[in-house]
Write a structure and sequence with these properties.
Membrane topology: Multi-pass membrane protein
Number of domains: 2
Number of helices: 19
Number of strands: 4
Pfam families: MFS_1
CATH class of the largest domain: Mainly Alpha
Order of helices and strands: EEEEHHHHHHHHHHHHHHHHHHH
GO biological process, one term: sphingosine-1-phosphate receptor signaling pathway
Structural class: mainly alpha
GO molecular function: sphingolipid transporter activity; transmembrane transporter activity
Protein name: Major facilitator superfamily (MFS) profile domain-containing protein
Radius of gyration: 24 Å
CATH architecture of the largest domain: Up-down Bundle
Strand content: under 5%
Strand order of the largest sheet: 1-2
Length: 514
């Protein structure tokens, strides 16, 4: 027999069961008592909701929310030509949309990381989703004279989405462990390319169906509000570190300043964050500019006309979105499977797989700009292979963080890693590529060919950044085992420490500098 927080009986429970209330607290199993009263219909509904709070269901809902997070982000990229034509802005001006979004995203990430390590995470997630959904919907009604306001709205959306990206992986990290955690994180991070691809497809399809690009921004908010509601109802709030091998509950936590010092000394964390910045730089630039680059390539090949109509062709956005969905699925699945096999050969498998995949990706991304002038199909093939290799490391990078950072500072670690990767990556890459393209176009006579070539020359910066990221993953492999061992010892220390002073050092932060 189990009881809810108000003392009513819940049918179908054994005496050893525990019931999780909607507030996230746990009620131990109790024997039947005359003071208990039968559940009312409302209480039975609540009990049914509680039984649906399985870890697998929670991971599925969080992954669905992550799909929507990235789908909303790249819906704008799917109608970028239309936005550029509507607001009459240059390449650098249109690149500013993504830069402002990412800047606000990365500034908010450490704040949400701090909150996520100390307060109810699912409430923060839901509020973030509701916020960006409402702002996205309102931004679709901004007039063409107020481009600055449209740019500002993308910044506000970045704040809302930052809460989700910073906190949700830590809930999955506390629900699963070992290979199961790797698999669940793979599913969660599959949402990045899947959501990005669906964003292109949704934006292009909604624009064509409605005959107006503004409708591309009016679909994802409805889905976002649905996801936020599901998180509030069905996602539990697990105790931090409850799923880790060492067991036990953490009895003490360190200050935010101590956490930041420890992360700065964690070499695997620092190098993997720098490596992720290379991935972020390339994906941010490609997400904004590749569809436009391919559209200009077709104009040069005389297989398409420049956009002079109110609604521009969405073919390239649709194809690029489809490729991103498929390559994301393949990349994450292949990455997880490859890592699992390589772990049988070496314990450094995680960073080594990331390094090899990034270096291989750089080769095919270089080939895109070689073949695009002659063959669009050849360019798509190179995009397919390059993106697949690039997407291999997303879930693996998150798993590296889970291995080398203790549970009580994971949300802070995820948030600060997000801040670093965006600061050095896609916060500036779309605007930088647009700025280089504009500068090259001003150097010579304006023509369709030179518009195409100037953007291609600017995008050639990306493969070099990817190679640099691969080098950082190789550096991560050098320190991975030592940092993982330190994290395990530090976690065990905190499950035993009761908060009393440690002699001769003044505190645990200095005792175990992780």
């Amino acid at each position: 027999m189990c009881v809810e927080s108000d003392g009513c009986e819940i049918e179908g429970c054994s005496s050893s069961d525990e019931v999780r209330t909607l507030s996230g607290s746990m009620s131990p199993g109790l024997k039947s008592s005359p003071s208990l009263h039968p559940c009312k219909p409302g209480h039975k509904f609540r009990a049914a909701l509680l039984r649906c709070r399985s870890p697998a269901a929670a991971a599925g809902i969080l992954s669905f929310g992550n799909v929507l997070n990235y789908m909303d982000r790249y819906t704008v990229a799917g109608v970028l030509l239309d936005i550029q034509r509507h607001y009459e802005v240059s390449d650098s001006g249109i690149g500013l949309l993504q830069t402002v979004f990412i800047c606000s995203f990365m500034v908010a990430a450490p704040i949400f990381g701090y909150l996520g390590d100390r307060f109810n995470r699912k409430v923060i997630l839901s509020c973030g989703i509701f916020f960006w959904s409402i702002v996205t919907l309102l931004s679709s009604f901004i007039s063409k004279e107020l481009y600055w306001l449209f740019v500002l709205s993308r910044g506000l959306v970045g704040i809302g989405e930052s809460s989700y990206s910073s906190i949700s992986p830590t809930i999955i990290g506390d629900l699963f462990t070992n290979n199961t955690r790797t698999m669940m994180l793979s599913v969660f991070y599959l949402a990045i390319p899947l959501g990005s691809g669906l964003g292109y497809i949704l934006g292009s399809s909604a624009k064509v169906a409605a005959g107006d690009w503004h409708w591309a921004l009016r679909v994802s908010p409805v889905l976002g509000i649905t996801a936020g509601t599901l998180i509030l109802l069905f996602v539990p709030e697990p105790k931090r570190g409850s799923a880790d091998q060492m067991g036990g509950h953490i009895k003490a936590r360190t200050s935010w300043l101590c956490d930041m010092k420890a992360l700065a000394k964690n070499r695997s964390y620092v190098f993997s964050s720098l490596a992720s910045s290379g991935v972020s730089f390339a994906t941010g630039a490609f997400g904004v500019w590749i569809p436009i680059y391919l559209a200009r390539a077709q104009v040069v090949q005389k297989t398409a006309e420049p956009c002079t109509k109110e609604i521009c062709s969405s073919t390239d956005s649709l194809i690029f979105g489809g490729i991103t969905c498929v390559t994301g699925l393949l990349g994450v699945v292949i990455g997880a499977a490859t890592t699992r096999l390589c772990r049988q050969k070496t314990e450094r498998a995680d960073p080594l797989v990331c390094a090899v995949s990034m270096l291989g990706s750089a080769i095919f991304i270089c080939l895109i700009f070689v073949v695009a002038k002659k063959s669009i199909i050849g360019a798509y093939v190179c995009i397919f292979i390059g993106e697949t290799l690039l997407f291999l490391n997303w879930a693996i990078t998150a798993d590296i963080l889970m291995f080398v950072v203790i549970p009580t500072r994971r949300a802070t670690a995820v948030a600060f890693q997000s801040f670093t990767t965006h600061l050095l990556g896609d916060a500036g890459s779309p605007y930088l590529i647009g700025l280089i393209s504009d500068s090259l176009q001003q150097s010579y006579t304006m023509s369709a060919l030179w518009q195409f070539l100037s953007l291609g020359y600017a995008l050639m910066l990306c493969p070099f950044i990817i190679v640099l990221g691969g080098m950082f993953f190789l550096a991560t492999a050098l320190f991975f085992l030592d940092d993982r061992e330190k994290a395990e010892k530090h976690h065990f220390f905190f499950t035993l420490w009761d908060g009393s002073p440690v002699v001769p050092t003044p505190g645990p932060c200095c005792q175990v500098p992780l």
